[in-house]
Amino acid sequence: MTKFSFRALLSFISVFLLVSPVAAQDNLRVAVANLSQDVNLLGQSLKTMRLEIEELRRENARLRSQVSTASSKSDTNAQISNLSVAIETLRREYGSADAQQRQQILAELNRQISALAKETQVAINSIAKAAYNQPKVATPIHFSDNFPKTGKTYVVRSGDTLSKIARDHGSTIKHIQNANKIVNPSKDLQVGETIFIPVSQ
C-alpha cells in the first residue's frame, strides 16, 4: 500500500511539473530531492539492519552448534537448558528488532509522503489562485457591414429576443446584431430601445 502510494505520488508530481510554473517546479524539485535523500538514508538503515540480522543468525548457528556438542555429554543438562533459554531469548529479540525497524521505516516514509503531498497541494492552490486573479481580457467583437441596408425600425418590447424579432420580421439574428452592434443580446437588448431590422428587398 505504501509503496503503491509513493509511486503514484511520484507519477503525479512528474505530470504536475510539466504543467506548473517555474517557481512551483523549483519548490517541488527541492522537496523531491530531499525525499530521495531521506529514502537513500532509509535504504542504508535497511542494509545495516540486514547486517545485524545476519550477525544474529550466525550467533544462533553458533549456539545451536554448542547445544549439539553439549547434548552428547551426559553431564551437561544444565548447560543445554541455559543455551535453549538463550536461543529463545535471542529469537524473541531478533523478531522484535526486525518488526520495530520495519515499523520505523514505514512510519518515516508515510510522514515524508504526507509532507510532500501537503507541499504539492499548497503549490497547486497557489497556482490556482494566481490563475484566478489574472485580469480577464475581453475578446474584441468585430461587426460586419455585410447586411441589407433596407429594412425597418422596431421598438423592443418585453419578452422580445433576437431570434423572435428576426423570425417575426423576416430577418436574421446576425444581420440585426451587425446593424445595431449588439454584443450581448441578453444585456444589450433593452425594452423600449429602437433598433434597425435589416430586411432584403
Which labels suit this protein?
mainly alpha; 201 residues; rod-shaped; single chain; Membrane-bound Lytic Murein Transglycosylase D, Chain A; 72% helix; two-stranded antiparallel sheet; Helix Hairpins
Number of helices in the DSSP assignment: 6
Portion in strands:
under 5%
- CA(first)-CA(last) distance: 76 Å
How does the overall form come out from the CA principal axes?
A: rod-shaped
For the biggest β-sheet, the strand order reads 1-2
What CATH architecture of the largest domain do you see? Answer: Orthogonal Bundle
What name does the CATH topology of the largest domain carry? Answer: Helix Hairpins
Largest sheet: 2 strands, antiparallel
Number of domains: 2
Radius of gyration over C-alpha positions, nearest whole angstrom? 40 Å
